[in-house]
Specification:
Number of domains: 3
Strand content: 5-15%
Protein name: Cutinase family protein
GO molecular function, one term: carboxylic ester hydrolase activity
Number of strands: 8
Pfam families: Cutinase
Number of helices: 21
CATH superfamily of the largest domain: Alpha/Beta hydrolase fold, catalytic domain
Structural class: mainly alpha
CATH topology of the largest domain: Rossmann fold
Radius of gyration: 31 Å
Distance between the termini: 27 Å
Largest sheet: 6 strands, parallel
Helix content: 40-55%
Shape: flat
CATH class of the largest domain: Alpha Beta
Order of helices and strands: EEEHEHEHEEEHHHHHHHHHHHHHHHHHH
CATH architecture of the largest domain: 3-Layer(aba) Sandwich
Keywords: Disulfide bond, Hydrolase, Serine esterase
Family: Belongs to the cutinase family.
Length: 675
């Protein structure tokens, strides 16, 4: 393709000198600001459409300036999530930073070369964010290290966006603080856009001020020797790079959990390790594989028809199976998850969610079990001595079994499939995160209600056993108390609807919340997970209906003796319920030798204490989180990161892309002296 149209590069002059030795000051408060949507988490996993690549370099190697074959300056640009992949052509500019590299190459010609390191660039869809980022760190270190070794005079400019900024920032910190993999004096400039560790000591924020720091925390050692040349750009409403941890500790905690790993340098993660939130919410479903599924199945069918050898068939069968199995697992999960069903079924026509729902519908019309069985047979028999006809027949059987799915995908545009695939790839984590918000929200509400519940149940027990209160008085009192119970139990019903509370408790416990609130909520949810919440709520409703019927009989002038007889039959059931419910709340039902963690009243009291002690922390912080994050998982498909190419960062009206291009260009001219 041809080059991206570019405005003429600008060299800003200040008092007769090029403005290149330092990062320019922020613009005034009145400067234009991005209106990127509010989101909760880590993710920063919103896809940018790939930027049209600039002119390809004449040689796969970087442009040369001398006989050693090395450029004066090498630019290393790491794209964001979904902007690249592990097998990408590193010589081609892509994503948000593509125009920056292209413009610099046009300005400096053979004096400047660039690379866009290939890495996984995934989050949830096939790989946990932390594992994907580790591949990015390794890729940047590889490219920088190769140049450093081969070209001892070459200087560097480094840039990263979103997940790419996370990785490049880590490498920059390593360079600045330890000279690894290259000495700090060889790096002219570092530009980090939407860095989840924004706020790291030494980094200079360019553009309007933001509230808080990156959702992943900061780099403990700072940027050290690269502090003076490290620029951070963060949109004012992008919580990925601007979260106030003191006001939103749970927001920051979840983000930290999703973006971190125990070993950030790990490049060959163990997929069986699910002891952190990021891994727990990740799936084996890759959006790229879903998009490629029709072609993969078609290849399998073609090979079957042409009598391809069993090994070739087995490779194709394995490719189909690796996509089909997690897709089938997702379909089953959606079928059993009302929130996921609702999201897809109520989506507007033409939307990516609607297309994703159509894909799952087509999958359900396919004979998936048959397809997976014969695909497994093909793979397992590839090394055995058997006839080709049998393998070919199995392959054709699998292709035929998947006809409804492949027909649906084949009649949908590639762009629509790609967008729907992205929805499917992140559907489970997005819904699960929303469910966690629901569980935390209603769990807190229920915890706040526990003292009132204990009081109401205690009064109910007293009322039922008080022989001095006549029938009408008891019915009236019970009617009022059951009405209160119904309202107090409502958050519990909302919390439990369509949610695996055991899983929710485990995931909430993974949130590294320093206030301890998340851990208490996790304990409360764990206790409730052992109760039949829906049966409990149903029992409250049934008892309330019986009391209501008694009250109606009395108010209509019915026979009080008959009402009294019905009340006598009702009292043992109501008393048993109230006593058991009160014992459950206070932990008296804990088995001997138990840990005592079933004391809901005690746990609820500890939440109240934390809220009083921490003021804006604890339960109050979660309440604020929930008010801001009602669409918590929308970050997965939202536009929070889209728009940085239009985000104005200074009073000259320059966007992120323009500012980085100008600043890198000025640094190259000033330090290297090339024109």
């Amino acid at each position: 393709m041809g080059p991206i149209p570019q405005a003429a590069p600008r060299t800003t002059v200040m008092n007769g000198a090029r403005r290149s030795d330092r990062i320019p000051q922020r613009c005034s408060a009145g400067a234009s600001r991005s209106t990127a949507g509010l989101v909760l988490l880590a993710a920063g996993v919103t896809a940018f459409a790939a930027v049209t690549p600039g002119p390809a370099l004449a040689d796969p190697a970087l442009p040369i300036t001398n006989v050693s074959g090395c450029p004066a300056v090498a630019g290393v640009f790491l794209p964001g999530t979904w902007e690249t992949h592990a097998d990408a052509d590193e010589t081609q500019p892509v994503g948000l930073l593509g125009p920056v590299a292209t413009a610099l190459a046009q300005q400096f010609g053979e004096n400047f070369g660039f690379r866009f390191p290939a890495y996984a660039a995934e989050a949830f869809d096939g790989m946990a964010y932390s594992d994907s980022k580790a591949t990015g760190v390794a890729a940047v270190r590889r490219v920088v290290g190769d140049f450093a070794d081969r070209c001892p005079a070459t200087k560097f400019v480094l840039a990263g966006y979103s997940q790419g900024a996370d990785a490049v920032g880590d490498v920059a910190a390593s360079i600045g603080c330890s000279g690894d993999p290259v000495a700090a004096d060889r790096v002219l400039a570092v530009g980090l856009v939407a860095d989840p560790k924004q706020g790291t000591a030494g980094g200079k924020l360019v553009g309007p001020s933001v509230d808080g720091q990156g959702i992943a925390g900061t780099r403990a050692g700072g940027f050290c020797g690269l502090s003076a040349v490290t620029a951070e750009i963060c949109a004012t409403k992008d919580k990925y790079c601007a979260t106030n941890a003191s006001e939103d500790p749970i927001t920051a905690g979840i983000g930290h959990a999703l973006t971190q790993s125990d070993d950030s340098t790990k490049i060959d993660p163990d997929p069986t390790q699910t002891d952190d939130l990021g891994h727990a919410l990740s799936s084996d479903l890759s959006a790229d594989k879903i998009t490629d599924l029709p072609a993969t199945v078609a290849r399998l069918g073609t090979q079957a028809a042409s009598g391809a050898d069993p090994i070739a068939l087995a490779e194709s069968a394995s490719d189909v199976s690796k996509t089909l199995q997690p897709l089938a697992d997702l379909s089953t999960w959606v079928f059993n998850t009302p929130d996921a069903q609702k999201r897809l079924s109520e989506a507007s026509d033409g939307s990516a969610d609607k297309t994703a729902g159509s894909v799952l519908d087509a999958l359900r019309r396919s004979d998936v079990n048959t397809a997976l069985t014969v695909l497994s047979d093909i793979v397992s028999q590839s090394g055995e001595d058997h006839d080709r006809i049998g393998s070919a027949q199995d392959a054709q059987t699998a292709a035929n079994a998947l006809t409804p799915l492949t027909d649906s995908l084949s009649t949908t545009t590639s762009d629509s499939i790609s967008q729907a695939a992205r929805v499917l790839a992140v559907l489970k984590p997005s819904v699960v995160i929303n469910q966690l918000v629901n569980v935390v929200s209603n769990g807190l509400s229920f915890a706040e209600n526990v003292p009132s519940l204990s009081d109401v149940l205690g009064r109910m027990i007293g009322l039922l056993g008080d022989s001095g209160i006549d029938t009408a008085g008891k019915v009236s009192g019970l009617h009022d108390l059951f009405g209160q119970l119904n309202g107090l139990f409502e958050p519990l019903v909302k919390m439990a609807a369509g949610v695996d509370l055991h899983t929710a408790s485990r995931l909430i416990a993974m949130i590294p919340d320093t206030t301890g609130t998340a851990q208490v909520v996790s304990a409360i949810v764990a206790v409730l997970a052992n109760l039949d919440v829906m049966q409990l709520a149903q029992q409250v409703g049934q008892l309330q209906d019986k009391v209501w019927a008694l009250a109606q009989t009395i108010s209509s002038g019915g026979d009080l003796l008959a009402v009294g007889a019905r009340l006598l039959d009702f009292i043992p059931t109501a008393l048993g319920f109230a006593t058991l419910a009160l014992d459950t709340l206070t932990g008296k039902t804990t088995q001997p030798g138990g840990s005592g963690t079933s004391d809901l009243a005690g746990l609820s009291k500890s939440l109240t204490t934390k809220s009083d002690t921490n003021s804006s922390s604890g339960a109050d912080a979660i309440s604020k989180l929930l008010s801001e994050g009602s669409d918590v998982a929308s970050f997965l498909l939202s536009g929070v990161h889209q728009g940085y190419d239009h985000y104005v960062v200074d009073s000259d009206g320059r966007t992120t892309v323009q500012w980085l291009t100008d600043w890198f260009g000025n640094r190259i001219r000033h330090v290297v002296g090339v024109v």
